[in-house]
Amino acid sequence: MSDFRTILANLRRPRLLMRAARFGLGDYSRERDLRRLVKCDHSPEQTVPTLLVEEERLEQTRLRGDLGYSVARHIDVLIALLAEAQLLRRATGA
To answer: pTM for this one?
Structure first.
């Protein structure tokens, strides 16, 4: 679990992308939004690694300049990742 904290703490993305994700945290609904991003509803311990993999895939697509890149999806994944990480921290009391 501390590995996820380290990964999230070292996550370096464009400032505008992260600002948009932080701004979207207030509207995040786990029941509504998580279903679109991962196959099924799991605990934060299971969703954080899945979201990290998806976010890294999107980041690599962005860096390549691939036409299939979706900034909206990237922001959605970052919002979910930040929200699920918060849930994970609360659950562990850290």
So the answer is: 0.86
Q: How far apart are CA 26 and CA 92, in angstroms?
A: 22
Along the 94 residues of the chain, how does pLDDT read in single tens digits?
A: 456 666 776 778 999 999 999 999 999 999 888 888 887 667 888 888 899 999 999 999 999 999 999 999 999 999 999 999 888 877 766 5
Name the residue type at position 76: D
Q: Is the dihedral of CA 64, 67, 79, 26 positive or negative?
A: positive
Q: Which two tokens stand for residue 10?
A: 């070292």
Closest CA to 88 of 51, 39, 40: 51
Cα 34 from Cα 82, distance rounded (Å): 12
